[in-house]
Design a protein that fits this description.
single chain, alpha/beta, Rossmann fold, 2 domains, 6-stranded mixed β-sheet, 4-stranded antiparallel β-sheet, globular
């Protein structure tokens, strides 16, 4: 059974539309959500978490529909943007203590284990951390309440290559512990290093959602890297969108 299912997700803004986005996340796998900046990745993630209300579509997580079960579902999910932007002057230990009060399933032993694994100092404040360590702090809070699914919006954005590699290796470690990871990125090499599955979004539409190996087998041309394949698909998607836009005035002009 899929750990999370998205069906027909649609959200319209004046200058952008998320259109009929559908995919499923399998348990115990790392799913890379790829697309250029502005493709609709953050809109999709916020809709998945009910942080914004889509115009249409259904979100099911752990077999439960999000509407009516949001509090229960979010006890089992960890969500993180790229960096910590709240309580920049509070110490890590103090923020963890406040966070713990919201989660009955908080695991103090897990908190200590991940604190040591990530090399975080409880006496430091988020403003004293590097960008990579800020991401780890977000993950620390999520994993300490036994999150079964991590939903991460551009977690590697702004990190240096060494910190990015370290974070992707961490995803592999978490997968080995049974945690499912869903992360958005516009850095295709991230997918090559750790993703089991790839969902490619362009212009508000899912263009492909496949296991990484099948993605390559079905969509790559001989000799293409995954990055080259997605760049080519993006160009083709832009051409398709341009043709659709050109066709719309013609249809309106018909008697």
């Amino acid at each position: 059974m899929a750990i999370m299912t998205v069906r027909g997700l649609t959200k319209t803004y004046p200058a952008f539309q998320l259109r009929d986005v559908s995919f499923a996340l399998e348990p115990g796998r790392i799913t890379g959500f790829a697309g250029r900046n502005g493709a609709g990745k953050t809109t999709t993630i916020k809709s998945m978490l009910n942080l914004i209300h889509p115009d249409a579509g259904e979100i099911t997580c752990f077999g439960l529909p999000m509407p009516g079960n949001e509090a229960q579902i979010k006890q089992r999910i960890g969500y993180s943007t790229g960096t910590v932007s709240w309580y920049p002057r509070k110490k890590i230990g103090e923020i963890a203590a406040v966070t713990r009060s919201f989660y009955p399933g908080w695991d103090a032993a897990a908190y200590r284990r991940y604190l040591a694994l990530f090399g975080l100092d409880e006496q430091k404040a988020p403003r004293e951390l590097s960008e990579g360590m800020k991401v780890k702090f977000n993950l620390l809070l999520a994993l300490s309440h036994k999150a079964e699914l991590l939903i991460l919006d551009e977690p590697t954005s702004g990190l240096d290559p060494f910190s990015r590699d370290e974070l992707l290796e961490l995803f592999l470690t978490l997968r080995g512990e049974g945690v499912s990871v869903f992360f958005s990125t516009h850095i295709i090499s991230d997918l090559e290093k750790c993703a089991d599955d790839v969902i490619y979004l362009s212009g508000g539409r899912v263009r492909a959602a496949l296991p990484r190996r099948q993605f390559r087998e079905q969509l790559s041309r001989p000799g293409e890297t995954l990055e080259e394949t997605i760049l080519r698909l993006e160009k083709e998607a832009q051409q398709e969108s341009a043709q659709e836009s050109a066709a719309e005035p013609a249809k309106e002009a018909e008697p």
